Amino acid sequence: MATVAVVLAGGIGQRMGAGRPKQLIEVGGRPILALSVAAFDGHPGVDEVLVVMAAGHLRDAAAMAAPFRKVAGVIEGGDTRTASSAAALRALAGRPDDTRVLFHDAARPFVSRAVIDRVLAGLDGYEAVAVGVPSSDTIVEVSGGMVAAMPPRESLVRFQTPQGFRLGAVRKAYEAALADPALRATDDCGIVHRYLPDVPITVVLGDERNLKVTHPLDIVIAEHLAAEEA
After folding, report:
1. Model pTM?
2. Which distant-in-sequence residues (6+ apart) come within 8 Å of 145 by Cβ?
3. Do 91 and 14 meet the contact criterion of CB atoms below 8 Å apart?
4. Which residues are within 8 A (CB) of 187 and not within 5 positions of it... i.e. 6 or more apart?
5. How do the pLDDT tens digits run along the chain, 230 residues long?
6. Which terminus of the chain is more solvent-facing, meaning fewer CB atoms within 10 Å of its CB: N or C?
7. Which of 95, 102, 19, 31 lies closest to 63 in space, CA to CA?
């Protein structure tokens, strides 16, 4: 069976305030997008890489992707994460249902081979795999500025990517999601959890180094991590 890694770079990084997509910002002398693509291009368990890029920046993304032999295409993403994932699924139309698909945030440039290994291993027994790290903070539910609930910390994890799926399952979930006018989602496992509730989602261990570059301070941390890996 084939494994396709979808690198989602469709956002424009408004919270970064850089005036351009954060995926194009350089860390350690290389664009964040290139670092993310490299992680999957160099993994022996990945057969293809599909890059989903923000509108207006496809040429830049294609130039960055050109040196990577597994990149099968660079396509335009949507206005939301869900729309970008849906665009990738349309590009994979006709692929067998047992194809393994990994959805990864381009803004996580330091995903390790070990994390990818764990996601692929999880797909041997499940149709959906999430990556999580235990929460070191107390997480509370707030309503109207007041604490409404305090879930036990030991039961909580923070999701990372890649999230892995059998194509047939995630495709079916997205068909239902896109037909729902009340659709609201922030990640692909959320789509499967809501629209295919009978499909179990297993969680494998992530890595604290697999941070998502979102705010300016994250660039400082990313530069430090890039220097350690150099």
Report:
1. 0.94
2. none
3. no
4. 81, 159, 161, 163
5. 899 999 999 766 555 545 567 888 999 999 999 999 999 999 999 999 999 998 889 999 999 999 999 999 999 998 889 999 999 999 999 999 999 999 999 999 999 999 999 999 999 999 999 999 999 899 999 999 999 999 999 999 999 999 999 999 999 999 999 999 999 888 999 999 999 999 999 999 999 999 999 888 999 999 999 998 86
6. C
7. 31
